[in-house]
Structures are given as C-alpha cells and as structure tokens.
Amino acid sequence: MDYSVLIKSSNGKKSRVGIVGATSGYGYTLLAQISQVSLMELRMICALDAGDCQRVLLELGYDRENMVICENARQLYAAPDQAILILTDYRLVPETDITALVECTGNTVVGSWLSEEALKKGIHVYMVSKETDSVCGVAMNQIAEKYHSIYTLVNGDQPRNLLDLISWGRVLGLDIVCAGKSSEYDFVWDPDTGEFTYLNDTDQPREPMPGMKALWHYEGTETLKKRECLLEKYRAVISADLCEMNLVSNATGMPPACKSMHYPVAKISELADIFIPREDGGILEKTGVVDVFCNLRRPDEASFAGGVFLIIRCKNEKVWKILTGKGHVVSRNQKYACVYLPYHYMGLESPISILLGDLMGIGANENCRQVAVMAAVAQEDIPKGTVLQVHGHHHSIDHITPQLWEKKEATNLAPFYLLNNGSLVNDIKKGDPITLSDVNPEGQRLVELYRMGMALE
Length: 457
Fold this sequence. Notes:
The chain is of the alpha/beta class. The protein is 30% helix and 21% strand. The strands form 5 sheets. Strands 8, 9, 10, 11, 12, 13, 14, 15 and 16 form a 9-stranded mixed sheet that branches. Strands 3-4-2-1-5-6-7 form a 7-stranded parallel sheet, with helices on both faces.
C-alpha cells in the first residue's frame, strides 16, 4: 500500500490522540513517535502519576508550557484547545475531544470501560491491551459497529502485524497452512564456544551447551524432541504468547494448533519443514491454524525479533523453483514455503493503524468472533477464597497455566484475564480449568461483555 494516500485524503484533518497507560514500554515508544508524524497531534495522556507524565513528555521534547494537568471536569473543560491534557482519572478520558483513544493499561476492567464509553461517543479505540481484547474484543467490535466507531488492534504488536500478513496472503489467494509468531526471546548458541544464551531483557542466563552441536542441523521432528529435552528449563508456555494468538484466532477464524502451542525450538530456515502436516514430516495435526515457535540462532545472526510468519502451500512447481532460487524459505519437499516479517516495532509502527482508522475508516478485525478462549488451568490444587492476580513481565497468574481452547470446548470457561483480582468461590483441583461459576470477578460488566461475544455465531 502507498501510505502517502493518507496525506492526500486527510484534507487537513489530524488525529487527536489520547493515550491511557502511557509512561513506559509501548506507550513511551508511541509518545516518542507521535511528534514525528505530521498527521497526528498528542491531545491527552492519562496515567496515575501526573508528575511522571510530565517527566516523560519533557524527556521526549514536548513543551512544558503546553501541558495542562486536569484533575476534574471543570479543569478539563477550561483547558486550551491545543494543550496537552494530563489526566490522572481515567473516567475523564471520554469527556475530552480526542479522535483516537490508545488503550495500553493492561487492566481489563479499566480498558473495557474506557473502550465502551469512548466508542459510544464516536471516539475510535486502538487497543494495545491484549488482555482486554482477549476477554471482550468481540463485543467491542459489535459496539463499535452500532455507534459507527472503529475498534481495532494496532500495528507494532504481533497480533495486528500478523493479521495484516494473513490478510495480504488471503487477498493473494495463498493457501495458508499455519500463521504464527516467535516467542518473545531468542535461544542463541555459539558454535565456536559451545555457549548457550537465553536472550532476554533482564539477566540473560548463559551456560556451556556442547550437546547442541549434534542438534544444530535439522533432521526432522526427532531433532525437535531432542532440542526440547536439552533446553527444557528454558522452555515455557508464556501467557502473553497465547493471549496474542487468541486475538489472531478470534479475528481470522483460524483455531489454535493445540492448547499450549507447540513451541518448537527452530531456526527461521526450518519453519517451512516444521509447521506443516504430520504426513509431510511436520508437527501439525490440522492446518489453517495459529502457533508459536522459539527462535534458535547464532550470535551473529539477526533475530526474528518477535516477528510473525505464514506457512503456505507451493502450488506451482515452476514458480517456487524460481523463488527458491531467489533465497526464499522453502521446505525440503518443495511443498511449503515460509513468508515472514522479523520485527514488531511497538509504538513506532502504531501511527499507521491510527491514521488508517481516523482518516480512512479502516480497522483490522471487524468480523471478530470468539473462535478460541484463553483458559486458566490449575497447576496444583487451589483452595476456595484464593484471590487471583495477574503480575510480572509475562502477565501470568500464580499456580495457573494458560491454554487456548476452541470455543466449542470452552462454553462455560472463565477467560484467563477475566480472573485478575477475582476470588475463587470453589476449590479447584489440579488439572481442572476455572469456569465462570468458580470465580467472583472484579468487574461484572466485563463478564457481560464476554458473554455477549460468546453468544455471537
């Protein structure tokens, strides 16, 4: 797409952007980029600490004289039209004159309330909080349609990037066997030293791992099994990964490949040999699914960077012989190919999604349906009265593992992120999923929105 058409079609209009939960991580990267985009202006920022908001804005080069802290509606209505509004009460957000609300709190109760109120007022909602979308994204799309607003995921995070790649493939008539992403951190092995590094943004553990040498070259699914055994302590089912695949599944109709995702430890060059049907030497029991892998590479190789991929069928031998010659990733049996985007640039990419929505009325998931539910399965017996809390970098819940269940199996299950701050009203046995009748949730409206989405066919 020629994105310059956005400028031609804007007729002088700009997106007036408000960001909630914006002082670190994703929000910080978007704040940094907005000032570089001619068709956007920052109108509002909302976080618990007004001083922190000011500090971040000043750090990014915004003018202190143009910032106005508003603690109540009276101050909000009296603020200058071009000021950057700094709010500490999220309930004031729908009263502002923003055209675009970027929700990145990660709080399902706050995020769902904000989204619903904004959509009802004609404010387009750009959802970054995957936790909220996994619970009520289907309902939010219906509310947006009713009020002629837009509710959509944003580029810069894997779900929207993968949705765009799937859409591209479908328009081209490609037969998509599998769509997915790499897990957040790379597995890095140095053939020269035999040292293994689990690349992450904290302690980056290292250890000698000479056993990887015999498993470095892919010889089939037995190689995967042996890699998994060797790297067992580094492999995990990560809540954020399953949540992101939940969003993609709901927006595309593609079910999960399996409840816990396969997570093969694999190089990019091996993907077209792995995410294919078992009868062709791969790991898939069914096709047209979503899945996740752990990227394995040398230290001097580029990362997949949490990027996204498609596995497609090669239907014309001559065409794919030409493309193989140009270096594309094709399976050894020449039946499948891998198309991939090795990046997700967080808020640096997100202005595209906001401008497509605000200026052209284009979203990404209008036909969203609850195809999969991110269930919460007890890892051990959990007593009645336990308060469940989402915490940590991967937004996990203690003593609970996430699984992606297809809707037909998950009729009464409580979605994982509906459980945050909820208390159990029943004892839960190890291995059992938590149902809606097992929990007293923090937000009843969130339950209503989830049920609304589940009721749609």
